[in-house]
Structure formats: structure tokens, C-alpha cells
Amino acid sequence: MVDPGRRIAGRVSVCLCLSGAYIVAQQPDTSLLRRYYEEGEKALVEHRYDEAERAYEKLRQLDPGTAELHARLGLIYFQEGKFEQAVSALRQALKLKPNLPKAGTLLAMSLSELGRYTEALPGLEKGFRRSTDPPVKRMCGLQLARAYTGLHRDSEAVEVALEMTRLYPDDPEVLYHTGRLFGNFAYLTIQRLQQVARTSVWMRLAVGDLHESQEHHDLAISEYRQVLALDPGRPGIHYRLGRALLARSQLTSSAEDVAQALKEFEQELELDPTNANAAYEAGEIHRRSGQRDKAEEFFQIALQYYPDFEEAHVGLGRVLIARGKPELALPHLQKAISLDPEDDVCYFHLSQVYRALGNVAEQQKVLAEFQRLRSQKEREERSLIGRALSPREVTKQELDSEAAW
Question: How far apart (Å, rounded) are the C-alpha atoms in residues 351 and 333?
């Protein structure tokens, strides 16, 4: 589950600039004030917060009636993680000057860091919904999502997270926190499902999906079969069962599992002829077993209902190459590349087509791209980033060991 107490990273000294020039303007002939102010500002800019704190505490002692001094100290305390002191300083600043810019937002974030979400919520909502300053909006959004989570207002937390990913699609911190939040929401939703419908089809299906995602294929198969026992005509379950059987066969090399998977895909198509995924998987099983006529038939069915099915275009292209029809394979492979320009397998088979058609220049061009993409793929597969975080929805097209078709 998401830890609502986790500190939101990032500095706010830039995005929450409270006017320091105003401080000096209050006492223009006081050199001591100016000296402490300059020392504090320099230390703050350089992130030497302990020195900035000492300088501003001296300033506050000399001039306790200036709201900006309290606000500046609140900012410094926040950066140091001294949130109780930040709350005290910021409340004093707002008592002296209720409309002090951005002090209310920083106060709300300090309260959120202390887990006082109910008190923080109004300021966070205002900062996120109304601020035109992107850094302020971003920090308030992160804190607001956490506050909603801490208050068990999970659907509102998800709404904020969705908006954050729209506003900051490439922000690593935003992606990390929203990913955790979505995972937490999914967990809570399944928990609720278990409470209200423990023995239902939907609970069995959820457990099956969970086992499948964790590659516990035997358990997934068992759950999917129990779903079918409860509701034999439910669309999609024969397909899920077939996928689990196929995944298990890849670990055990079981021809029986492959044969059973094919039966499940065919049964799925009897219930739902428009299931392009089931048609594709059936076609791929036939392709790998050398039954090209049947493979072509099923790939065509998949493309009939899902014309932009990239893997099906590649599969059909491979069958047509094997049947000596490179001119018919060409448009399918070109379409596949337009849908996924990073598919190295497609480039390899496109080079075969150009070779068969006698187009040496194009063959060399696409073969060079295949080699580039293949090297890139191998590098990615050696890293954690390149590994799949969730099971694929359909079988990925891969080069056969003999690289023939």
C-alpha cells in the first residue's frame, strides 16, 4: 500500500519566493538588519539552511513584527524538515499579514508533511486548482494526492494523480508517486471486491489475473476454470485460460498444453467471433506448427476485426513469405512497421521480402535497421528497465531459431 507519510521530494525555495527586499525596506538605515538579511539570503540560495536559519532567527528577534521574516523562516524550516516549526512561523506570518503571497500554500504543505491532512486540505486544493505557478502547482498536486490517500478519499486521490500525469508526463517523481497510488487504489478495490463478493465470478477472475501476472500459471488456470464452471458462456475467459496454458507450455515444453490452449482460443471464437486476440493466438500456434493455411485463416480473422493489429500483420506476412508470396507479404509488413517502427522482427522479415523481390538496395537498408534495433533490444534486455513489468496481452512475434519464416 502507499505510505501516506512518505516525504515529497524537491526544494521549494525557488517556487515559493517571499519578498526579501521588502524586509530591508522596512528599516533602510539599520545596517545590522541588512547584514543578517544578506547572510541569510546567500545561505538560502546556496542551500545552507542551518546558516540561513541562524541569520533569520536573529532578524526575527530584531524585528518580530515583520510578517515576511516569519514567512522566510517558515520556508527555511520546511527545507530542513522542521515542519512543526515551519507551521508555527507561517501561522505567525499570516496572523501579521493574512494575504501574504504563497505563505498559505507553504503552510498547507507543512501540515501535510506532518500528516495533518484535514487542516492541510483547503490550502492544497487552492494551490493545485488555482495556482498559475507550475512548480507550486506540482508540489501542491503531489501533497494533495497524498492527503486524499491519508484521508481514505481514494477516488479523489486518483483524480489528482491522473491530472498530474497529464500536466507532468515526464516527471520522474510524479510518475513514481502516481504509480504507487494507482497500485494502492487497485489493491483497495480488490479488497472491497473480496468483502462484497468473495465467491463471485469477478473475484475468481481477479484472483486468476493476479496469479497470471505473477506467472503462477497453475493457479491462474485453476481460477479461470472455476470461472467457467460458474459461468460457461462468459466471453473472454476461454481466451485468458488459453493464454495461461500457453505461458505454462513455454516453461514445460508441453505439447499437450499448446493443444489445449488452441482449443480454448477456438472456443473463445465460438462465443465471440470478434475476439482478434484469440484469432491471433490460434493463428500463431498454427504458424509455429507449420500449418500455414490455418494460420493465414486465423490471422485474416484477427485483422478483419482489428485492422491495426501489428503482431497479426507480422504473423500473416511471415506465412505469406513461407508460401512464396512475398508481394502479398510486403504491404502487411510495411503496415506493421508504420504501427511499430521499433519492431526488429518485422524489419528482418521485410528484408526477406525485398531479397525475394530482387530489391537489393531496400534489403540492405532494412537489414541495417534490423541490426541496429536488435542491438538496442539486447542492451535493454540486459537491464531491469528493458524487462516487462506486466504480462503481454498477446504472444510477441519473435525470430525463429532457424530464422527461416
Answer: 10
Percent helix, strand, coil in the chain, to 5, is 75, 0, 25
Closest by CA position to 62, among listed 100, 40, 36 = 36
Instruction: Count other C-beta atoms under 10 Å from residue 154's C-beta.
Output: 17
User: Please, what sign has the CA dihedral across residues 369, 373, 378, 379?
Assistant: positive
CA 235, CA 272: separation in Å to the nearest integer? 7
- Asked if 309 contacts 303 with a C-beta cutoff of 8 angstroms, the reply is yes
**pLDDT at residue 2, rounded to an integer:** 43
Q: Which residue has the cell 465470478?
A: 201
> Which amino acid is present at 46?
E
Contact (Cβ atoms closer than 8 angstroms) between residue 8 and residue 146: yes
Neighbours of 28 (CB within 10 A): 9
Which pLDDT does position 27 carry in this prediction? 52
398: DSSP letter: -
List alpha helices for 97-233, DSSP H. Answer: 103-113, 117-130, 134-150, 154-167, 172-196, 201-213, 217-230
Please give the Cα distance from 240 to 252 (Å, whole number).
Answer: 19
Beta carbons of 320 and 329 less than 8 angstroms apart? yes
In the structure grid, which three cell numbers stand for residue 351, read together? Answer: 528484408
Cα dihedral across residues 320, 326, 329, 333: positive or negative = positive
335, pLDDT greater than 90: yes
Are the CB atoms for 329 and 317 separated by under 8 Å? yes
* Angle, vertex CA 10, rays to CA 151 and CA 60, nearest 5: 90
Which residues in 201-211 are b (16+ Cβ under 10 Å) and which e? bebbbbbbbeb
Round to whole Å and give the CA distance between 113 and 89.
15
Locus of grid cell 530591508: 24
Q: Closest Cα partner for 115 from 89, 152, 146?
A: 146
| Total count of residues recorded for the chain | 405
| pTM, entire model | 0.63
Are residues 313 and 337 in contact, defined by beta-carbon separation less than 8 angstroms?
no
| Alpha-carbon gap, residue 159 to 348, rounded angstroms | 43
Map residue 400 onto helix, strand or coil. coil
User: Has residue 24 got a pLDDT over 70?
Assistant: no
Query: What is the C-alpha to C-alpha distance for residues 158 and 161, in angstroms, rounded to an integer?
Result: 5
